[in-house]
Specification:
Length: 187
């Protein structure tokens, strides 16, 4: 008798989560999935399209994946019919977030090779819709570590807000802003 190892499940969940990030944030057209203006996709439609791309999930497994996701990357609508990514989109979606007063300081994890450009032009969203900022240094450290030896920049969010620049917080706690000019960045 063969028992499924928990690890196997974890690995297939990570793979499914990466694929969902790809289609819900960047390339829904890859699987022909319609997203509405707020970034929502119909769950039944999504599930029907996944097997052709090697991802096997039923409704229950999808719900589990959303619940257990380490960074709470996805949200299911209140009626349970739709799913979207909570942040990180490169396609234009209106997440309907309300501008909020940020904490006095937020943090951004990056790597040394970007520091010169950041010092001259500030933090830019790059491919994404927003610059992503972390509420604490530990999270910023993890974000930076994805690309190399991390460097943590402190962002004077309190002063940006006082100067009229807008901040939003995604459903999973990431702080978002359009651009951080260099004068608000400390080492
Ligand atoms: C850098 C992951 C040159 C910036 C993470 C970063 C996060 C500049 C890279 C989320 C620059 C963009 C977002 C400038 C910024 N010149 N480089 N002017 N301004 N950069 O991935 O913040 O797992 O788009 O420092 O954990 O790294 O996907 O942004 O290194 O929460 O859910 O350009 O993505 O979450 O990279 O990460 P990214 P990020 P998920």
């Amino acid at each position: 008798m063969r028992h499924a190892m928990p690890m196997e499940k974890d690995i297939s969940f990570v793979r499914a989560s990466k694929f969902l990030s790809l289609v819900l944030r960047h390339e829904p057209q890859k699987i022909g999935l319609p997203l509405d203006a707020q970034g929502w996709a119909d769950i039944d439609d999504l599930l029907a399209r996944l097997p052709a791309h090697g991802v096997r999930l039923d409704r229950e497994a999808l719900q589990q994946l959303v619940q257990d996701n380490d960074k709470q990357r996805f949200a299911i609508s209140d009626d349970g019919q739709r799913i979207r990514a909570s942040q990180g989109h490169s396609i234009a979606v209106d997440l309907g977030l309300t501008a909020l007063e940020p904490p006095a300081w937020l943090y951004h994890g990056t790597v040394p090779r970007f520091l010169e450009a950041i010092a001259s032009e500030g933090l830019r969203p790059g491919e994404r819709q927003h610059v992503h900022l972390s509420p604490d240094r530990a999270t910023a450290f993890q974000v930076g570590s994805r690309r190399g030896t991390p460097v943590i920049l402190s962002v004077d969010a309190g002063r940006m807000h006082a100067d009229g620049l807008s901040f939003y917080q995604s459903a999973n706690g990431v702080w978002l802003t359009a651009h951080v000019p260099p004068r608000y960045i400390a080492g």
